Amino acid sequence: MARIVGGLATSHVPLIGVAMAERRQDDPDWKPFFDAYRPARAWLEAARPDTAIVVYNDHGLNFFLDKLPTFAVGAAPLYGNADEGWGIPVLPPYRGDPAFSWHLIESLIDDEFDLTTCQEMLVDHGFTVPMRLFWGDRAQTAVTTVPLSINTVQHPLPSPRRCYRLGQALGRAVASCAEDRRVVVIGAGGLSHQLDGRRAGFINRAFDRMCLERLADDPEWFLSMTPRDLIRRAGTQGVELLCWLAMRGALGDRVRRVHAHYQAPVSNTGAGLLVLDPVAGRAAG
Length: 285
Prior knowledge:
The two termini are 19 Å apart. Helix content is 33%, strand content 22%. Helix 4 (98-110) crosses helix 6. A hairpin with a 7-residue loop joins strand 10 and strand 11 (271-279). The protein has helices at 14-21, 31-35, 38-47, 98-110, 125-135, 160-175, 205-217, 227-234, 241-250; strands at 3-10, 51-56, 71-74, 78-81, 94-95, 116-118, 122-123, 144-150, 182-188, 254-263, 271-279. By secondary structure, it is α/β, with parallel strands linked by helices. The chain has a single domain (3-279), classed as Protocatechuate 4,5-dioxygenase, Chain B, CATH 3.40.830. The chain contains nine helices and eleven strands.
């Protein structure tokens, strides 16, 4: 049986990708940030996942405002990278697993989630930065991948409750796979930030730190919020927290917080890292 061995959450700021490409991890300004990922990498070495499901938001590479699905899942053998204009070098493609992707897609649709299925899909910094943070230069070979994109750009946005329930359905989809497979779920994006408008540069450190606590111990605290509530608390782009909630939903009712880190600002963003172990108990949903 396939099983989820844990969950990871991380910010995906494009400048992080530039710093990694330029090998600046030991620069004084960057070293505290990158050092915080060493425990996460050590946890991954022990957890030995075969597949990473990356829950992230597309930034216009596949979808734009004229056609933007609420939820989209990749079902391709390879996921190519493309130039986004942030100065991040184009990276080699990431390995997919179409058979496992289709199992997840069919299970999620049976669970009444309407999805866009993508047999061709490009991945942007929302996907590539987390993969490189956790696996470094082995990101293209260490695991197979399933991209799961959530709309955090074009209103109406899915609610925190809907994204958490998507994660719960994803957990059930993984558990229903008869294949022996170890899966890690990654929630990418956030934390608080706003890149434009009157609140450009907004960071809510108190809310960010609370998210690192509540996501582990009390995720249902977020479920009464609307997307606008999240935007008020975390900024326009801070609504990417929806991806973290989907990751958390996939892990079941109880988790153990293995590691957490917070740093702000990181390129006008409150940057967070979270490593969670699922604890056996009642199935989610």
